[in-house]
Amino acid sequence: MAEHKENEWVSVADMMSSFVAVLIMVILTIDQGSGGGQAGIKVRKALNDKLNGIVSESDSTILYKWGVSGDTLVLSEGVFESGSPKLLKKMQEILSASSKTIHEILKSPFYLARVEGHSDTVSYKNGPQLKVERPNKDSLIVLKYRYDNVLLSLQRAMEARRVIVSGWNISDAENVSLLGYGPNKPIDKNALAPNRRVEITFEYLPNQKK
C-alpha cells in the first residue's frame, strides 16, 4: 500500500482549515444580519462574566445555566419552605446582594429579564385563603380562593422580583417580567425541595429593546 507523502497531508489540513474559516465567516455574517456578530459575542461574554460573578459570590448556591437565546440563574437550594412564597433569609440576602449586578445587566439595550417561579408537587388546596375587599363597605365583596401550585409559584416569582428591583426606578423595573409554572417543570422528579425554586432568565435581544 502506498504511503501518503507529508505534503499531501499538509494540503488536506490546509483545505480543512480554509473550510472551517469560511464556515465561521458565514455564521458571523448571518449573526451580524440580526445585530449579532463580534458585537453580539462581546455582549454575551460580558453577561457571562457578570453571572459567573453572582454565582461566585453566592458560594454556588445559585447555579448558572447557559442557553442559546438567553442565560439563566437557578436558585434551587434553600430557597423556600414547603407551601411558602417567602424567600428564606439567606437566599433573600444573596439575591439582594445580586440586585446591583442584575441592574447593570439590564441597563444594556440587549437584555430583558424574566423571573420564573416553580413549586413541588405537594397540593396546597387547604392552604390559606386570600380575601379581597372593596373600599366601599356598603358594597363589600370578599373573594375567597385557596392556593394552588401555579399561584404559589407566581407568588414566589413576585417575591424574588420584589427583592431584585428594590430601589430601582419604575422604568428599569419594567424590564423584569414574571411567570409561574407550578410543578410543571421539575428539575428533580425524585425530590421536592430542589423544585421549590426561582429561575432568572436574561433574554438576549440582538436587535436591542425599544
Give the gist of this structure:
42% of the residues lie in helices and 16% in strands. The chain has 210 residues and is α+β, with helices and mostly antiparallel strands.
Characterise this structure.
This protein is about 40% helix and about 15% strand. It is an alpha+beta fold and about 210 residues long. The chain has helices at about 5-35, 35-55, 90-105, 150-165, 170-175, and strands at about 60-65, 70-75, 110-115, 130, 145, 175-180, 200-205. It has a five-stranded mixed beta sheet. A two-stranded antiparallel sheet has the order 4-5. The model is unreliable at about 1-10, about 20-35 and about 140-145 (pLDDT under 50). It has two domains: about 1-35, no CATH class; about 35-205, OmpA-like domain (60s Ribosomal Protein L30, Chain: A, 2-Layer Sandwich).
Chain-wise SSE layout:
Layout: H1 6-33, H2 37-57, E1 62-65, E2 70-75, H3 89-107, E3 111-117, E4 129-130, E5 145-146, H4 149-165, H5 170-173, E6 176-180, E7 198-204
Helix pairs in contact: 1-2, 2-3, 3-4
What distinguishing features does this structure have?
5-stranded mixed sheet, globular, 16% strand, 60s Ribosomal Protein L30, Chain: A, 210 residues, alpha+beta, two-stranded antiparallel sheet, disordered N terminus, single chain
